[in-house]
Amino acid sequence: MARFVPFSMHIRITPDNGSGQLKSKRFENWRDMQKISSLMYEALDDLTTITMAEPGGGQHRSFSGTGRSGMSGLVNGLAVKPQIGETPAQVMIAGFWDDTASNTQPHPEHQRISGGEIYTGPATAVPWDQNPATKVDEMVKALKSAVEVAIDAGLPGGVAYDIFRIDISGVVYGDRGYHFPQ
Fold first, then answer.
1. Which partner from 6, 7, 26, 129 sits 20 to 30 angstroms from 97, CA to CA?
2. Closest of 158, 18, 11 to residue 95, by C-alpha
3. Low-confidence ranges of the chain (pLDDT < 50)
4. CA 87, CA 96: separation in Å to the nearest integer?
5. 3-class DSSP state of 167
6. Are strands 74-76 and 161-168 parallel, antiparallel or unpaired?
7. How far apart are CA 73 and CA 58, in angstroms?
8. CA–CA separation, 170 vs 109, rounded Å?
9. Angle formed by the axes of helices 22-45 and 134-154, nearest 10°
10. Phi and psi for 97 in degrees, rounded to 5?
11. Rounded CA gap, 27 and 20, in Å?
12. Considering only CA atoms, which of 24, 78, 89 is closest in space to residue 56?
């Protein structure tokens, strides 16, 4: 039986900085992020192991060249945010990973003593000395590789990207979290 595990993924992108005056450069930068977002959405929409949250966000496809005007050029896309301080420009995917494994507690059992009794069970806060369960690491590896393969096939060669952060099953990998499993 399939189960859907919610996740959010942040992907670092490098938009084209454009040329010209400052105001024009900002617009070109933003438009390039929208193009990257819509191309990534189209590439990931074909994956059967991922169901992206709806609505996917609206981006304008200014590169279509079909002479569309008004709102008819809008396509589905992913959320984008520009570089702010030292945080890079990112695309965010919110969705569900289709996994066939049974539910897994992400962290090992935790023992606590209360009122002279010893209790064992899931911890309310993740202890500093415990790593996530192996099944969660395997799920992250599979998710990361599936997304990278789809994006590599859907993006043109000159677009640089890097998976920056994954939050799945209450465990954070990447930025401010665990290292990505190898």
1. 129
2. 11
3. 63-71
4. 25
5. strand
6. unpaired
7. 10
8. 15
9. 110
10. -90, 125
11. 11
12. 78
Q: Alpha helices, DSSP H only, in 100-166?
A: 134-154
Residue 37 one-letter amino acid:
S
Could you give the CA distance from residue 96 to residue 92 in angstroms, rounded to a whole number?
A: 13
Identify the three-state secondary structure at position 85: coil
Token pair for 175: 């930025």
**What ranges in the chain are assigned the alpha helix state H?**
22-45, 134-154
Residues pairing with 94 in the sheet = 8
Domain residue extents for the chain: 3-104+132-174
Strands 90-99 and 110-114, bridge-based pairing: unpaired
The per-residue pLDDT for range 34-64, each reduced to its tens digit, is: 888 888 888 888 888 888 877 655 565 554 4
pTM equals 0.77
Tokens of 115: 């009122």
Looking at residue 45, what is its pLDDT?
84
Structure tokens at 104: 């897994």
Give the tokens for residue 50: 């991922």
Question: Using CA atoms, how far apart are residues 170 and 147, in angstroms rounded to an integer?
Answer: 19
Q: Could you give the count of Cα atoms lying within 13 Å of 88 in the half-sphere of its Cβ?
A: 16
How many residues does this entry show for the chain? 182
| CA angle, 4 then 87 then 77, to 5° | 45
